[in-house]
Amino acid sequence: MTIEERLTALENEVAHMRxxxxxxxxxxxxxxxxxxxxxxxxxxxxLAANHKSAVEWLESHDKAMLEIRESQREAEARGxxxxxxxxxxVSAIGDLIRQQQSR
Length: 103
What we know:
This protein has 103 residues and is an all-alpha fold. It has helices at 3-16, 23-102. α1 runs antiparallel to α2.
C-alpha cells in the first residue's frame, strides 16, 4: 500500500469516526499519519541529497569531458605537425639520395 493510499484510507476512517466513542482510533490514525509524514520527509531529504550529489558528479563529468576533448584536439594538432615534419624529412632524404645517385 502506497503512502498516498494509506493517507486516503486514514482520512476516510477519520471522516467516519464519531469523536466521542472513536477517540483511540482517531489518535492511532493521527499517529500513523505522523509516521507516514516522517517517512516522506526522510525520503525527501535522501532524494535531495542524492540529487545534489548527482548534479555535482554531472558537473564534474562535463568538465572532465571538456578537458578530454581539448586534450584530444591538442594531440591531433601535434600529430598533424609531426606528420608534416616526417613528410618533409622523407622528401629531403629522397632529394639527397637522388643528388648522390646523379653524381
